[in-house]
Amino acid sequence: MKDKRFLIVAVLILVAGAFLPHVVKNAYVFYAGFVTLQYIVISTGWNILGGYGGYVNFGSGAFVGLGTYAAVFLFNAIAAPLWLQILGAAVVGGLLGLAVGYLTLRIQGVYFSIATLALTVVLNTVIVNWPFVGAARGATVLAPPQHGWFPTIVTYVFFAMLVLAVLSIALARWIERSWIGRGLAALRADEKAAESAGVPTLKLKLATAAISGALMAMAGAPYPYYASYVEPTAAFSITYALNALAMPLIGGTRSWVGPLIGAILLSGIEQAATVTIPSEVNLLIVGFVLIGFVVAAPDGLLRLFGRRSAPGRRA
Amino acid sequence: MTETILAVRDIWKRFGGQPAVAGVTLDVERGEKLGIIGPNGSGKTTLINCITGVLKPDQGTVTFEGADISALPAYRRARRGIARSFQIPRPFVGITVAQNVMVPLDYVDDVDNPVARTRELLKLVGLESRADHPAESLTHLELRKLELARALAAEPRLLIADEVMAGLSETEIDEVLATLFALNDRGVTVIMIEHIMHAIMRFSQRLVCMETGRIIADGTPHDVGKDPEVRRVYFGEQASH
Amino acid sequence: MFFELTSNAIVSGLLLGGLYAVASLGLTITFGLLEIPNVAHPTFIVLGAYCTEYLNRLGLDPVVAGVIIAPAFYLGGMALYQAYYASFERRGRSNTLQSFTFFFGVALVLQVLLILVAGVDLKSADAAYIGKSLVLGVIRMPYRLIVPFAVGLVVGLGMWLFLSRTRTGLAIRAVAHDSDALRIVGLSPTQAKRHAFGIAMMTAAVAGSALIVASPVDPFIGAQYIGRTFAVVVLAGMGSVPGTLVGALVIGLLESLIITFVGATWAPGVAFAALLACLAIRPSGIFGIAR
């Protein structure tokens, strides 16, 4: 059964990830790996609402940044451990997704997208005016002295992100194959017909927006430990929004495999490019890639190479 | 024992200045085979949309099985046992034919074996061979069959079939009619909207004719067929079947 | 003292609204009437500002420069629509995700190109009237705000006349409501839309020149204007020119009051808050018909 195979692979990956820091001593692997894993979580989370449901979030940076600052807040306020920071981020991210969804998903999908466009600016504004989390100056987050099994803080957050990546993919895969995935596909295809078939479209959209928001925010939570220093421009960076869009688009939006492929591919390319070319040119290339794909191969690489990737279980 | 399963009271629906439905009142008995005819633009589909909850009427009420469902959203009405097929097929593109049929099974509860039921339904409408094909690859005819299968999926107590037979061959029309008759025998109330006269005349035990948003005739197919108003409205609109 | 503060805040807000009106009018057409989500519009305004700055350095008055670059932007707008049409509408795919993403990509590419060509430093324009103010009693109106306001009125009036009195203008409104009416006017829907895009881009050019008169510009200012322009268009009621003017004045006023009484760092969030409030209370906007 495919489920069992998936479970075995997932466990193997986690075990490998846990032992990796003791085998590989090159820190760069973990620094770079963290970024890619973070994008796996972000694009998977994005795709649950964007690819499966058809509602495009242009403000992923807002959610990721929110998660980052939720972590900073919890750290500053109660010296919360990482798992609690992640949990807090998930809750706040979910609530934001729900709020934006509630305000806009009852009208037309296009308004959801517009609202998310401006969301990043708004959250940035709020944080910039909030001294407790560092405002515009930024906040320094000192790593916890003990990270147990893991030799360094980087390997610690790397593993945390690996866990999040596996969990988010497992969740996306489950959603895709379940009645939720079918309901989302129905409402994406034809909302009125879906309603007439019994699908509670508004509730489904809201729940999905909350899940998507929670996942993207969780991706931001380990960042303070990773970078030690958090400031708004980086936390709410436009590259999050851009990549959250580009990665599923490139990999394929209909299946959980798409964002995974897109994240690994694009993040890999970007990191290789950063070393050699200035970051603006990097952005430029991603922008062109985005336009190119949306025009020529909108269903992503998966469809381009002929793989059947329909959501939901075979009946 | 007859009981009213659907009571439509004084429904009005305007688009811009024009009323598409102008004060329709209609009672449907449980187990009845009701046919609705009328030229294009007479408000048949708009009335159905108001009944199923896709549109909100400007005034009027809809009662189903004794309960006022006027304020309920479409999905709740579906869960209470109202199903409809769309005049222009609205498939869920992006998933397979079988998954299309599974959607109502997922959301209208209490279906014992959804996988088996899906196969059964697809076999019924003749789409079994296309089960795992993406919905977007279906021909127009096959899409109509999918519409019917999806509407039948969750065992509705009221089925509204909006032009399910358009474009079908004579044999296929007979098959669909047989299915609908069998369904009705099991107690399902069927409201049929059709332009294929011989089919709807054969099927209906009661016929209603609409024109510009109003009901202009209501009676047995025989009587309505002879009604001078109905003849006037249909002059030049004779379906060739 | 309070009166002076308030009245100046109100006046500046209204003047700012004129600028926001010019910025938003193009979007009223493309997004409000044609329902094409052109999120690249604010970036084109920034491009207009940069072009104006360049011509200004050569000695031209900014507003004049805006008028001069307008035709080029008109052609650019038509080309952009053509690209969009060829990629999406002709293939029958006006899928929201894809069209949004297309313009998002265009906006990004344009912004990065601006950074690469012109750098990230603030650029400003020079003119005789920038720096001076008109003083009426306690009210102090800087010319750098009066000029954009005037431009806003002129463009707004022009747009309204165009859409209601000319054949092309009526055709564009027809596209939004009823494609059959277009045939009477003799234009195909595609031609009408192409011209509409061209006009929208023209307003972006003029808006850019007004923008750089009002304040210095850097390549990142487009992000703030996305929120503002979309807020104005939604507040207006999609496709309504008078609504756009009113909506812009409202947004300008709100921002100015918040800046004066709460703090400048809160200003970027105001437009968005207004957008959300509008969506929550009356999504059809001030002048719009319920969808």
Computed Rg of chain B: 17 Å
- Rg of chain C, nearest Å: 19 Å
- What general outline of chain B do the C-alpha atoms trace? globular
Q: Order of strands across the biggest sheet of chain B?
A: 6-7-8-3-9-10
Describe the structure.
Chain A is mainly alpha-helical. In chain A, 76% of the residues lie in helices and 1% in strands. Chain A contains 15 helices and two strands. Chain A has a two-stranded antiparallel sheet. Mean pLDDT of chain A is 87; it is low at 307-315. In chain B, strand 4 and strand 5 (67-68) form a beta hairpin. Chain B is built from nine helices and ten strands. Helix content of chain B is 37%, strand content 26%. In chain B, the strands form two sheets. A six-stranded mixed beta sheet of chain B has the order 6-7-8-3-9-10, sandwiched between helices. In chain B, strands 2-1-4-5 form a four-stranded antiparallel beta sheet, covered by helices on one side. The model of chain B has no long low-confidence stretch (mean pLDDT 89). In chain B, helix 3 (97-107) runs parallel beside helix 5 (140-153) and helix 4 crosses helix 5. Chain B has 241 residues and is α/β, with parallel strands linked by helices. The relative contact order of chain B is 0.18. Chain C is built from eleven helices and two strands. Chain C has helices spanning 2-33, 41-57, 62-89, 96-118, 143-165, 167-177, 179-185, 189-214, 221-236, 241-261, 267-281; strands at residues 133-136, 139-142. Chain C has a two-stranded antiparallel sheet. In chain C, a hairpin with a 2-residue loop joins strand 1 and strand 2 (139-142). In chain C, helix 1 runs antiparallel to helix 10 and helix 2 (41-57) crosses helix 9. Chain C is globular. The mean pLDDT of chain C is 85. Chains in contact: A-B, A-C.
In short:
The complex is a heterotrimer of chains A (315), B (241) and C (291). With 315 residues, chain A is mainly alpha-helical. Helices cover 76% and strands 1% of the residues of chain A.
